[in-house]
Design brief:
Length: 479
């Protein structure tokens, strides 16, 4: 995370200020502005100008009016966007430190701050002139009393972990092999406080994880299967919640080769599901949420080299189920299926899997939402959807009707790995359902995990989608 956040006990005369305010209440202005500045502010408010920059003798003061709305989720999102938008002004004036003060009737300082932090994210690791490209803002101070220590600690935990997930997605495969991903997970676990166990290729072979091993056949590099665990003494759930993340560090499509433009050229992001669950584990551990949480990350690249699996092959999965391969580019579901079957050993209370699984999901809702489905009870789904609106990572449920199972019947094996020309996202989820016997939800983040252009505080390329959603859900899950 590029931004340090701290509490401001009292602002000084030379502190640059951002004041969050309503455009119809100016009672606070006498504490910060002279009469001429007050007149100017009221004039700009009538014109609905925002933000308003007022240079003063020793500092710059910025007033940001926050618009009210009947929809609370939209109102909170507008505050996040305003927090991101204001960064361009700070950058223009080379402002490195800012004090954030709340004077509006509704307290949206948490959302505004979230937008600032996430909007200030940069991935500059591979630039020679990274210093020159670095955003000016380094330090944000929050007026004392506006947020509780718990609120601030949790915000820092989830935003820093979202940025961590973005970093993982933005890393090229030349760095982030399956082996390197497991090493990075170990480092993140040590820094955040959760434990990590990594199964190597020999162990994966002994366990006969046929899905993961089949996808790995075309690679020179071995697969890994990482097991992350956070189990505090005060955890409130008797059985663990298990997260599963697709960790395909690069996807060529295998022998069913993808075209390069607008497809293979951004397939370093095919491990975004893994990044989501890794980031969530980091956020939960940093915030010390009282929940027993496990994450499973099967990882490999998918290439057409070596002894690559081919269309027509039959693969025996970790569960013993046989799968006819019709398309080697439908590989993510094979990794996930092995991990979902492995999750049974924990007798989990709930399993949530995240994956950039299908182009169908991206085509259905674009980057504006996440497609999901599963057999969890309605109260769990409702709570998850409420969290989706709260963090503005909205969810659309797709059906798992039994008829879709017919699409996956094979003439030579128990299942085939491709459903047909239609309903691709649903049949992928139906395939995964076969490997579950517990409360489960599947999230296809193909549309929102990687963006070609920035979308306000959702950065260009890796977005870290799902971390904020899961953190909000898990935080409420243990209440």
């Amino acid at each position: 995370m590029n931004t340090k956040v701290s509490v401001l006990r009292s602002h000084k005369s030379n502190d640059n200020l951002i004041i969050l305010a309503d455009n119809n209440n100016f009672s606070w202005t006498k504490d910060f502005l002279n009469s001429a500045e007050q007149t100017y502010l009221k004039k700009m408010a009538k014109r609905e100008v925002s933000p308003i920059l007022i240079p003063q003798e020793n500092r710059i003061l910025i007033v940001q009016f926050l618009k009210s709305c009947s929809n609370e989720a939209v109102e909170r999102e507008r505050a996040r966007i305003a927090g991101c938008d204001i960064l361009s002004t700070l950058s223009h004036y080379k402002i490195s430190s800012i004090a954030l003060i709340q004077r509006s009737k509704k307290n949206h300082i948490l959302d505004f701050l979230e937008g600032m932090i996430l909007g200030n994210y940069q991935f500059l690791k591979y630039f020679k002139d990274k210093v020159a490209k670095t955003n000016s803002l380094r330090d944000i101070k929050i007026e004392q009393g506006m947020l509780s220590k718990k609120e601030l600690d949790q915000l820092i935990a989830v935003t820093s972990s979202t940025c961590l997930a973005r970093d993982l997605v933005n890393e090229p495969q030349s760095y982030l092999s399956a082996i390197q991903l497991s090493e990075d997970i170990k480092k993140i676990g040590k820094a955040s406080g959760f434990s990590v166990k990594v199964l190597n290729k020999k162990k994966i072979q002994q366990m006969k994880m046929g899905g993961l091993l089949a996808v790995n056949l075309g690679s020179k590099l071995p697969p890994t299967f990482s097991i992350l665990e956070w189990k505090p003494k005060n955890s409130t759930n008797k059985k663990p919640v298990v997260l599963v993340g697709k960790g395909v560090v690069y996807d060529t499509g295998g022998l069913s080769l993808k075209p390069t433009p607008n497809s293979m050229d951004f397939m370093k992001s095919d491990m975004a599901g893994a990044a989501t669950v890794i980031g969530t584990m980091a956020a939960v551990a940093k915030a010390k949420l009282p929940i027993h949480l496990i994450a499973l990350v099967p990882s490999t690249d998918n290439r057409p080299g070596q002894d690559a699996y081919v269309p027509g092959d039959v693969v025996t999965m970790y569960s013993g189920t046989t799968v006819e391969i019709l398309n080697t580019d439908a590989e993510g579901r094979l990794l996930l299926a092995d991990a979902l079957h492995y999750a049974k050993k924990y007798k989990p209370e709930l399993v949530l899997d995240f994956a950039t699984l299908t182009g169908s999901a991206a085509n259905a809702v674009g980057p504006e939402a996440i497609c999901y489905m599963g057999n969890a009870d309605q109260s769990t789904k409702t709570k998850m959807e409420e969290c989706g609106h709260a963090v503005y990572e909205r969810l659309i449920e797709f059906p798992l009707w039994q008829e879709y199972g017919e699409y996956l019947k094979s003439n030579v094996a128990d299942l085939k790995n491709l459903g047909g020309a239609t309903s691709g996202m649903i049949t992928a989820g139906k395939f995964l359902e076969h490997f579950t016997d517990y409360s489960w939800l599947h999230f296809d983040i193909a549309g929102s995990a990687f963006l070609k252009t920035s979308d306000n505080y959702r950065s260009r390329e890796g977005t870290g989608v799902g971390v904020r959603l899961l953190f909000d859900f898990l935080k409420k899950y243990v209440l």
